[in-house]
Design brief:
heterodimer, A: alpha+beta, 5-stranded mixed sheet, B: mainly beta, 4-stranded antiparallel sheet
Chain lengths: ~100, ~375
Amino acid sequence: MIRVVLPAHLRTLARAGGEVEVEVDGVATQRSLLDALEARYPMLRGTIRDHVTQQRRPFVRFFACGEDLSHESPDAPLPEAVASGAEPFLLVGAIAGG
Amino acid sequence: MSGVRVLVGTRKGAFILTSDGKREHWEVAGPQFGGWEMYHLKGSPADPNRLYASQSTGWFGQMIQRSNDAGKTWEPVGNKFVYDGVPGTHQWYDGTPHPWEFKRVWHLEPSLTDPDTVYAGVEDAALFRSSDGGQTWQELPGLRGHGTGLRWQPGAGGLCLHTILLDPSDPQRIFIAISAAGAFRSDDGGETWRAINRGLRSEHIPDPDAEVGHCVHHVAMHQSRPGVLFMQKHWDVMRSDDAGDSWREVSGNLPTDFGFALDVHAHEPDTIYVVPIKSDSEHYPPEGKLRVYRSRTGGNEWEPLTQGLPQSDCYVNVLRDAMAVDSLDACGVYFGTTGGQVYASRDAGDHWAPIVRDLPAVLSVEVQTLP
């Protein structure tokens, strides 16, 4: 079970709490995690990554274990601490605006 | 007991204002979708409890929300807007080709007869339709593909399809308008389209009488006379008496013919309302006076309506989708400002009062008249 922390607006949209848990089959990667997250919360499709290109939206970032994983390959295995559920995977809305 | 429901989209959420038919006392509900840009909300004419709302942010993109209980509860429906085929390019501000990229939904227009059918006007400009209550969306590609799309160029607010008018007398006829391409009409339910910009004149484009390239801000019609169209263009208020085949200017004695919002009285097809704005470089009312102008002659002769509106130090804007009317007797007129006020007149514009004064900047105002 992988723990995911959603930003406030997406929590509201998904009617979910601060942290959600999703089950990932096979190797846990950004892609497999987001596939599982969107399967459980279909209303999040298109809000984190583009419907067609599957590219991360520019103002959404991925963090875990104190590291910025936003530019990692979507098919790279997630850190073991995330895959095991010891550490959460953080979806963060970039600080932007003024 | 009749009543009125005003649907207000703002930069930071949606608000629903309700009153009975007297329109003296208002209840304000909201914000709903707090923090999101609500470009537009609109109710189905066939089922007034069915509402659609366009919700977006730069962070998380576009959502479409649907309500079956007049906005008490909402459910997110489909947000997948994918252009038909290879999207191709339109022109960028500098005239170079730029790929079509979906950004947001500016306007939602529910079908006049089917609560599950709704049209969406989007940026970059295209028209989408859903026939399953907003769950899935399909582009009507004949609009972008009709031949002039390569030459469309964005206005300052983006290349947005902001106006959708469904002809109540002819289900096959649809009018749309795009900044800064112009107005277009389909006579076959959206399959094929043609530009309807003859008579528009835009001085600052290479060919002032071009087939496309005109910055049309808004178009409105009266339900009883759908062949007559009124247009607020970037500069000029225009009128067509032949369903857009030709246009003539009716700016008349307006203090400035720049502006965004325009609407038609519910019972008098020749009574129209605009809010003159000083200029394209100063998006506020002339002389700091917020004045609605009314013409009872279908244009050309205009009178300022000022009772209850600020007549000094007022520097708000009224955006293109932020004016609407109810169909009570007397006709109610409503508009919202970028300063967060929603003003209402329950006597066709003679007197005005704010329903609310301090909302976020208002992007859109729609009105439902309830039985």
